[in-house]
Amino acid sequence: MKIPYDGLLDRFSQITPSGEFVSKYKKKSQRFASQLSALITGRLMVAGTSASGGLTTGGIGLRYLSVRKQFGEKKFTETPLIEYPLVQKRLVPDICILILFDRIIEKNFYLSLNVNNSDLEDPAAKELHAACSVIKVMSSSKGMDIALVVRELCGGMGYSDFSRIPSMIKDQNVQMTWEGANDVLVQQTAKFLLAAFQKIMTKKVSPTKSLDFFLSFSEDEEIIKKELAKREEVVLGQDEKAIDVPLIHSVVKRLHQFRLKQISECTAEYFARTMQENPSIFHAFNQALPDHMVAASLSWGFYLCLEHMEDFRAKLPTAESQFCQKAALVAGLNHLRNFAHYLSSAVSLPMFNKLFDIERALCGQIVPDLIVFTDAVMLNDSVLNSVLGRSDGEYAQAMIAKLYSNKLFGKSEDWNIVYPNN
Questions:
Q1: At what angle do helices 294-313 and 123-153 cross, to 10 degrees?
Q2: Burial zone of 83 (CB within 10 Å; 0-12 exposed, 13-18 middle, 19+ buried)
Q3: Contact in structure between 100 and 331 (CB atoms under 8 Å)
Q4: For residues 402 and 381, what is the distance between their CA atoms, to the nearest angstrom?
Q5: Measured between alpha carbons, how far is 72 from 62 in angstroms, rounded to an integer?
Q6: Confidence at residue 410, expressed as pLDDT on a 0 to 100 scale
Q7: What is the pLDDT of residues 31-76, one digit of tens each?
């Protein structure tokens, strides 16, 4: 079979009429990577689907747990499950994180696709590759997490197919492999950050705007300690019943920056030590990947979302902007729990405890707003398509109706004797 010359795909490489192969990329690996750049859109779509699917599952959980009651504080009283702090702690931060991902992917990252992402020499394209990879990792993982959490919190009802949760678990599970397995994608982000950290440390230049904050930290450790001590005073002075959300948000954002800075320094130190034992970059990277580089990738990806949320909020009406900031703060506080050991030199135990007290308080305060958000986004019951996610709260009647609409479950002849009114 012969393909005419005009039929050759020559976006990245060409064959001249004389038969010579030419390409703007010298290495085969670069040519291969440039072809894979087409996957960026797909990764964003998977990330967006995971986030919206996770919010659907979270919405089902919110509605059910708001009407499903359990033993109350006093005798013969009952309390909705959503009012228990343990339930809030397990569900609310995941919903807030997915709101962060969903808004940012939809409103910001899709706009970034106008970058020529096949040009590997363009710093913006390199950053976009790394960002889309880690956003897909975080969104698909969190979508799976919340599906499992909601299944558990809903008890046996959450195991029923009529709840829709089992099918959501199946849907979310495959997202972690589509358009690149998560374990592979996180390595792409790690390689980008490794090169960026090296440039910052050796040349004192940030290769990307998202890492410019590195240059805002003084090289004098005492100055950094004084700055963090002032922020600690702000946190410890907060009243949990009247939290200054913008102020605490600025503190949390700075802690995310400091955590990433500490990770970069630990990575550099680990690389130097490993290279002395075995002078192989491949070996050193693989040794650093499970701990330092994965921590760097996920921390940078999350910080990037917090940054984009600030831009997104600025265009919203006041009430929506305040809700998004509160949700982002809950998400940011919760994410600080990850890799918290990198903050041990900067954050005292009392400050950690206070931050988590603030997170717990906000989880309770934001629940009514999350329910309103669910009602606004999930326009009718057919969107959630779950007997547990009904807006009228009549989940038990809906479950019975579903059961008896199935031919496998018919009412016996003696049914009217037991239940004469049904």
A1: 90
A2: middle
A3: yes
A4: 15
A5: 19
A6: 60
A7: 666 666 677 888 888 999 999 999 999 999 999 999 998 887 777 7
At 226-271, the pLDDT tens digits run 888 888 888 888 888 889 998 999 899 999 999 999 999 898 888 8
Is 212 within 8 Å of 257 (Cβ atoms)?
no
Start-to-end C-alpha separation, the chain: 72
Using alpha carbons, select from 162, 182, 157 the residue that is nearest to residue 172.
Answer: 182
Rounded to whole angstroms, how far apart are CA atoms 417 and 422?
10
Amino acid at 221: E
| DSSP structure string for 217-265 | S-S-HHHHHHHHHHHHHHHHT--TTS--HHHHHHHHHHHHHHHHHHHHH
Sole residue written with tokens 């075995």: 278
Residue type at 303 in one-letter notation: Y
Nearest to 359 by CA among 326, 384, 390: 326
Q: Which amino acid would we find at residue 222?
A: E
Average pLDDT on 365-375 reads: 92
Q: Residue 346: which of 203, 241, 238, 222 has the closest Cα?
A: 222
CA 399/CA 381 separation, integer angstroms: 14
Lowest-pLDDT range of 7-21, 375-389, 393-407: 7-21
Give the pTM: 0.85
